[in-house]
Amino acid sequence: MQKVKWLEYHQVYPRDAGHRVVGNVLVAQEVRSPQLHNGRDIIVYLPPSYNHGSKRYPVLYMHDGQNLFDHETSFAGEWCVDDTLEELAASEGLEAIVVGISNTGPDRLNEYSPFVDPTYGGGHGNQYIAFIANTLKPLVDKHFRTHPQRRKTGIMGSSLGGLISLYAFFRREDIFGFAGVMSPSLWFAKGAIYGYIENASYLPGRIYLDAGTREMGGSPRSLSKRVQSRRYYAGVRRMKRILVQKGYWPVRDIMHVEEKWAAHSEDAWARRLPGALRFFLRA
């Protein structure tokens, strides 16, 4: 197992440069992936009660780590994961460790899909999931007081991050017990994920699935924006039907959210994040 040094967030991203996080947030720089032959920063949020006892916590692995905690490092706004969890801990007693996995820029698309799209590429998703499951999770379990069991370990992302989260839930049945699938790019690689999920075995767990009604992607640009949006959330509804047919019960096993007027953006995912976290963390 590689050696890493966990630094306080502001040792890496100084406040005087405009960086801001809330709570206890640590960073390990350039954590290496033997599966992908690259490295990236890993950002870990620890719950408010972490330094005041010996309690263990569920863990949520989240993609696009740059966008989760800090507006200054984000691509187009942050998810406010730290603010949200601090508030949920104070108001509802819900706590978790969040592991933000930074994307690697140009390789993001390849890593976030196990399927190859004839136009966009992809195809390194299995290696990326192996990095999380076989390299990163053992590292996190060693350094922090986690609940390492499957039912206490989740994975979450949006867009292609939503796609790879849904895939990972079924691909690594030994690791992930819940999945957050926000605005998933189900259209990628001609919708290959639909057939994969249809043929996968039922696994106990919880799946959060959502979309906005003004999202677009995967449809010919010649179509109107209204039609493109309709196709997008219709694709998410189709996935919900597949999961229900497989045995996942709405409300108990699946939380499906369709946000009216919401676009494909960090702001929308930040708005829907509290509901997803409640669904995962409430007993």
Labels describing this entry:
283 residues, alpha/beta, Rossmann fold, nine-stranded mixed sheet, 8 helices, 36% helix
Describe the model.
With 283 residues, the protein is an alpha/beta fold. It has one domain (7-281): Alpha/Beta hydrolase fold, catalytic domain (Rossmann fold, 3-Layer(aba) Sandwich), CATH 3.40.50. Helices cover 36% and strands 19% of the residues. The chain has helices spanning 9-12, 81-92, 108-111, 125-143, 160-171, 188-199, 225-246, 266-281, and strands spanning 7-8, 24-33, 38-46, 59-62, 97-101, 153-158, 178-182, 206-212, 254-259. Strands 1-2-3-5-4-6-7-8-9 form a 9-stranded mixed β-sheet, sandwiched between helices. Strand 8, helix 7 (225-246) and strand 9 form a beta-alpha-beta unit. The protein starts with 6 loop residues before the first strand and ends with a helix. The mean pLDDT is 95.
The total number of structural domains is 1
Report the major sheet: 9 strands, mixed
- Note the beta-strand portion: 15-25%
Under CATH, the homologous superfamily reads Alpha/Beta hydrolase fold, catalytic domain
Q: What average pLDDT do the residues reach?
A: 95
Shape: globular
Q: Helicity, in percent?
A: 25-40%
What's the N-to-C terminus distance? 33 Å
Question: Any idea of the CATH topology?
Answer: Rossmann fold
Task: Write the CATH architecture name.
Answer: 3-Layer(aba) Sandwich
Count of strand segments: 9
Class inferred from helices and paired strands: alpha/beta
CATH class identity? Alpha Beta
Runs in which pLDDT lies below 50 for 5 or more consecutive residues are none
Number of helices: 8
Q: Determine Rg (CA atoms, Å).
A: 18 Å
